[in-house]
C-alpha cells in the first residue's frame, strides 16, 4: 500500500543517514518498494558518488513524480514498475545502459540530457490506451546508441497478427518484417509506421546499429 511504501521510505532514509560512509563506497545499489521525499533522491546520488549500477523497483518520490539524475560514475540505470512520471537524465557522462520496464506515466518515460556514452536503451511496457505514442526520433534525439530494444508484450499492431513486425539487424541495416513482407531501411530512417497499439515509431533513430521490436502473443 502507499502507507507501507512511505513507511519503508522513511525507514530506509533513516538508515541511509546513519551510515553515509558505507553508502558512499558502494558501486552497486538496488532499492525496492520505497516512496521517498523529493530531496531524498538527490541526497542518494550525492552521497553514493561511486555508484556504477543502480536499480529501482517500485521506487518514487510520489505518484507521477519527476526523477532527475545527475551522477559522474553511473554506468547502468534500471527502473522497474515505477509510477515516476519521467526520468530526466540531466548529466550522466558515463551511462552506457538504460532500461525502463513497466511504467505508468502516459508521457515519454525518459528524456536525455548529457549522456555521451549511452549505447543501449531498453523500453518494456504494456502499451495501454493512456500511453502516448513513443516517437523515438524525439525520445532519443541525436544520441547515437548502438542497441535499441522495444518490447510491448501482448500488444499488437493494428491490422491483425499478420501485420506484426519483428525487427532485426543485418550489418548496418535494420530489417523490418511484416508477416511475409520484408523491407530493409537504413538505421537512420527506420520507420515502424503508425503502429496504433504498439505505441512506437522509430522514425529517424540516429545511428542505431541494432533494433529489436518484440511482441509476444
Automatic annotation (TrEMBL):
Every F-box/LRR-repeat protein 15/At3g58940/PEG3-like LRR domain range: 21-130
Domain of life the protein comes from: Eukaryota
Residue ranges that the Swiss-Prot or TrEMBL entry lists as coiled coil: none
Xref: InterPro entries: F-box_plant, LRR_dom_sf, LRR_FXL15/At3g58940/PEG3-like
Annotated Pfam families: LRR_At5g56370
This protein's name: F-box/LRR-repeat protein 15/At3g58940/PEG3-like LRR domain-containing protein
Species the sequence originates in: Aegilops tauschii subsp. strangulata
